[in-house]
Specification:
Elements: E1 13-16, E2 23-26, E3 32-34, E4 41-43, E5 91-97, H1 110-123, E6 132-136, H2 148-159, E7 167-173, E8 176-180, E9 190-194, H3 199-202, E10 205-206, H4 207-214, E11 223-229, E12 241-245, E13 251-255, E14 270-275, H5 297-307, H6 314-326, H7 343-348, E15 361-364
Helix pairs in contact: 5-6
Length: 377
């Protein structure tokens, strides 16, 4: 059906958020807009009016001489407590935990995973609370729900304005999947995906998009760590190299660079990802005694390795995670979800034979010695 003739709708204006500088689409006639990421209010100046205050961003003119406002010290409406960021850079994190509650594919441990990771970042690695963006079904506000659009905006916010010395973290606990790849840039022929809360209607987030959003823009001096607790998550960041480690701890780096020559690394920065299993594996989800909290196996083992003193290097962490998961029994109604709980290990002390059929993986933008490079966030 064709639109009515001579109908004209003015194109939407694009403005930058006055706080985090995310591009926002301004509805026609609106004089202010609320940022979906940091919730800051950006006021639009009237034509020919006086210059806006320091908390206001005007519509950017098409002139090439326009100078963007300086980056804000915090992604929120106020600066974090204490002095401004120092030469060691800022710390920012996006934590996403999805339980898919009231659906046939509900998961039990993902919300706990998100809370535990937030606690670890704040108390162990000194991330400011104000610089951690939580996306779960328990968060208040429509923009904190882990929908596809909100996850996309959160990933964009994570790398927006990053500078040398910054440390970025993306933690995801939820369903993962994969789909056939047709452009030839995957070694196994499949794209890995993350499943937002609304994936059944809005679709999944593909590894190509994740790589383009939070990996390739990273400039020199910026460090990104991803902790992905999901099915088929081995190479979900599409990083060029995978650390293939044996049960004895010996390892080698596999080259996963696309044959097409498309660059999947960073713009000089550092990107490293821990994931719950290999691309062709699934991670189970289980529910047992409701009095005991469930948590994802990968997330639990990652935190446990750090808190038990086995997190000094990347190789030590990967070995500790794999050892714990191999020693975990698999007889607690394991299903085909995205996250495994450690309830069986907590109850049996890891003595049940068999183990879980998932192997945490490590990928990176460049190969390195996993047993000598110190781990830090």
């Amino acid at each position: 059906m064709y639109p009515p003739p001579y109908h004209y709708a003015p194109p939407p204006l694009l403005v930058n958020c006055s706080n985090c500088h995310t591009p926002l689409q301004l509805p026609h006639g609106a004089r202010s807009i609320c940022c979906a990421i940091c919730r800051a209010i950006t006021h639009i100046a009237e034509p020919r009016s006086a210059p806006p205050s320091s908390t206001t961003t005007q519509v950017s003119p098409p002139s090439s001489t326009h100078t963007p406002p300086p980056p804000a010290p915090s992604p929120y409406n106020h600066a974090p407590p204490g002095p401004p960021p120092n030469v060691h850079g800022r710390k920012k994190a996006v934590i996403c935990g999805i339980s898919y509650r009231y659906s046939s594919h509900e998961l039990k441990g993902c919300l706990n995973d998100a809370k535990c990771m937030r606690y670890l970042l704040i108390n162990k690695f000194k991330f400011p609370q104000e610089s951690i963006l939580m996306l779960t079904e328990e968060e208040t506000g429509a923009y904190r729900s882990p929908t596809k659009e909100n996850m996309r905006m959160a990933l964009y916010w994570l790398v927006q304005g990053c500078q040398p010395g910054d440390s970025l973290v993306f933690h995801y606990s939820g369903h993962g999947s994969r789909q056939r790849n047709y452009n030839g840039d995957e070694v196994d022929g499949y794209d890995e995906t993350l499943c937002p809360l609304d994936f059944e209607t809005q679709g999944m987030i593909v590894d190509d998009e994740i790589n383009a959003t939070i990996v390739r823009p990273l400039p020199h001096g910026v460090k990104l760590h991803a902790i992905i607790d999901a099915c088929h998550s081995g190479t979900v960041l599409d990083l060029p190299f995978l650390c293939r480690m044996s049960s004895t701890g010996h390892y080698g780096w596999e080259d996963h660079r696309p044959r097409s020559g498309v660059w999947k690394g960073t713009n000089g920065g550092e990107a490293i990802s821990f994931s719950g299993c290999d691309d062709n594996q699934t991670s189970a989800d289980t529910s047992a005694l409701s009095r005991i909290t469930s948590t994802g196996a990968m997330t639990f083992c990652f935190i446990q390795a750090i808190e038990s003193g086995r997190g000094s290097t990347y190789g030590n962490i990967l070995n500790a995670m794999r050892t714990t998961i191999r020693s975990t029994g698999g007889g607690n109604d394991l299903g085909g979800g995205a996250v495994t709980t450690l309830l069986s290990m907590l109850l049996t002390g890891g003595s049940t034979p068999g183990g879980l059929r998932q192997e945490p993986q490590l990928t990176a933008c460049e190969p390195f010695d996993v047993y000598t490079r110190p781990f830090t966030l």
